[in-house]
Each structure stands twice: as C-alpha cells, then as structure tokens.
Design goal:
Blueprint (H helix, E strand, L loop, with lengths): L3 H23 L2 H10 L1 H21 L3 H13 L3 H11 L5 H27 L5 H23 L8 H4 L2 H21 L4 H11 L2 H28 L6 H27 L5 H11 L4 H9 L6 H28 L2
Helix pairs in contact: 1-9, 1-10, 1-11, 2-6, 2-7, 3-4, 3-12, 4-6, 4-14, 6-7, 6-13, 7-10, 9-10, 9-11, 12-13, 12-15, 13-15, 14-15
Length: 328
C-alpha cells in the first residue's frame, strides 16, 4: 500500500510510546522506591553483572562512550513483557522465585527512569554546553516526576469529569501523545516523556487505563518490533553475529548469577533456573535503546547486534523455562 511506510513509521513510534506509558502505569514512584529499599544489594549485583559486559564491549567494538552506554543498557535490562507472558502462560504467579525475579524487573524498570532521558540527551549529538543543559533538564524533569509520585500525589478517577472508561483511554493516551510531541520538539525522548506521564498516573485511573490500553499496546508494540526488523538489513547480522553470540553467552551467565543471588536462601536448583529463565530474555526496551541511537555512526551495527541478541536470549529463555517446568 502507498501509505505503508508512513503507517509503519508512525505505528512504531506509537508502539514505543505505549510500551513505556504502560510501564509507567504498572508502578507508582512510591512502589519503585520501596522495591529498591528492600533489595538494594540485589539491584546493585544485577547492575554490575549485566551493565558492565555491554559497557566494556561497546569500547571493544570502537563505539566510544556513547556506544558503551547504549550497549550497557541493552545487556542490562530484561524484558518485562516477555517475562510477564511466561508467568501468565505457565501460571507461575504463586512461586516465590517468580516474586523475587519480578522484584529484579521492577528495579531495572526504575533504572530506566533516569537512564533513558540521559542517554537520549547524550545521543542527540549536541555541543558540550548544550548537551550539559539538555542532560540537566532531563534529570530535573525526571527527578520532579519521581518526587511527585513518591510523595503519593495521584490524579483520582472522577467519573463526572472523565466519563466512561473510553474517555479515560483517550485522555491518558492523548496526554501521553501530547507529552511525547512536546518532548520530541525540545529534543527530549518522546517515549520517555510517556513513561513519566504513566508514572504520575496511579490508583483508579492507572487501573482503568491499563485494561483499556492493553490491546492497543499489543497491536502497536507488534508494529514496533516489525518496523525494527524491517529497518535492520539481514545482511548486516552476520557481521555482528560473533559479538552477539559472545554477549548472549555472557548475558545468560550473568542473569543466572543474578537469579542465584535473588533466591539463594530458597531450596532447589529448579528455583534458580526458573528465576533465571524469567530474567534472561532481553526484548522491547533493548530495542527502544537501540532505536534511540538511530542518528549515531554505529546505529546500523548496534541495531543488527541488538536484534540478534534479543532473538538468542529469548529463545534460550523459552527453552530453559519449559525445561524447568518438565523437570519438576
């Protein structure tokens, strides 16, 4: 169709916006801070073990500090979407190991709040002074949003004002699009702006919005993945396949160590295996980070590497979690 390119491009942007909006709606800033307080050592172990390999590999590949920061985030953040799908499909909600793994995912999600704005500002290829101003603004905006959320501020669901659930859907989604548009105009990440909007919405509004926006998220996130795949030339993958395999082997091992640290006081090898299988897959947010790097000189290689890395870690996780279920 003649409009396919434009539709896929716009749909991919909506997909990234909805992914991060829904992530913000999942938690309140207060819950995120509580998770960090309860498991400080776990968050630190996870960060060191999984961010550092990608960060060092970025320098080895010659991508400089920006490439190192981007690749560190890609190797660090597990896929909350894939993990939640595994949990739902295999009915793992009641397992203690699942709860521990989810706490790791929550801490990683919190890490994205300051990381994505800073990375997007650094990747904008601005001058030193302008870059410092942009990063400072990103930190201030993110800090204010987290502080407001942590103080318990929330927008109540007022039926007289918002009307039915369809009105809530349009209001929340419209607010995210507006914030994303304004943020993009000023050189800030639109998807991150949507995340901050979601973080500020808690209580009944968040519950209603999550239910109503879930089908839209599923549709446009699929378009986002499709667009990412279409923008990656398969002929670019063989050139980065060896680094992708090495990073995947290291990434699987470091997530195993993270899972062991999280469940070390529980009994059974299968417990560690189940927790690790939920943490191993990288997915939507790794691709979002790679997408933010589209204007850099290493963008083509990074996107191909990320796609291969996501496929390998996701397939590995799928086999492991099914093996752990059959072994019980």
């Amino acid at each position: 169709l003649s409009f396919s390119d434009e539709f896929l491009n716009l749909g991919a942007q909506w997909g990234a916006i909805l992914l991060l909006l829904m992530l913000g709606l999942e938690y309140s800033a207060e819950e995120l801070f509580d998770s960090v307080k309860q498991r400080k050592s776990l968050g630190l172990v996870d960060l060191v073990l999984n961010f550092l390999p990608g960060f060092l590999f970025g320098f080895i590949l010659g991508w400089g500090i920006l490439g190192a920061l981007a690749l560190g985030g890609i190797t660090y953040v597990s896929s909350s979407g894939i993990a939640s799908q595994f949990i739902k499909d295999l009915r793992l909600e009641s397992n203690e190991s699942t709860k521990r793994a989810v706490s790791v995912l929550v801490i990683e999600d919190l890490f994205l709040a300051p990381y994505l704005p800073i990375l997007s500002a650094l990747l904008a290829s601005l001058g030193v002074i302008t870059g410092l101003i942009s990063v400072s603004i990103a930190l201030i905006i993110t800090g204010i949003a987290l502080l407001i959320g942590a103080k318990g501020f929330h927008i109540p669901h007022a039926p007289l004002i918002m009307g039915d659930t369809a009105t809530v859907l349009l209001t929340v989604f419209g607010s995210a699009l507006l914030a994303s548009g304004v943020a993009t105009y000023f050189g800030f990440s639109g998807a991150v702006a949507a995340f901050l909007v979601g973080l500020l919405l808690t209580g009944d509004v968040a519950i209603v919005a999550r239910v109503r926006l879930a089908p839209l998220r599923d549709l446009f996130s699929a378009i986002f993945f499709l667009f990412f795949g279409l923008s990656t030339n398969p002929s670019d993958i063989p050139g980065v396949l060896l680094p992708a395999i090495i990073l995947s082997v290291v990434g699987v091992g470091t997530k195993f160590l993270t899972a062991w640290w999280a469940v070390r006081d529980l009994q059974g090898e299968q417990t560690t295996l189940k927790a690790a299988a939920l943490l191993i897959p990288r997915g939507e947010f790794s691709m979002v980070i790679a997408g933010l790097s589209a204007s850099t000189f290493f963008a083509v290689e990074l996107q191909a590497l990320t796609l291969a890395y996501v496929i390998i870690t996701t397939l590995t996780s799928s086999f492991l979690i099914r093996f752990s279920i059959k072994s019980n």
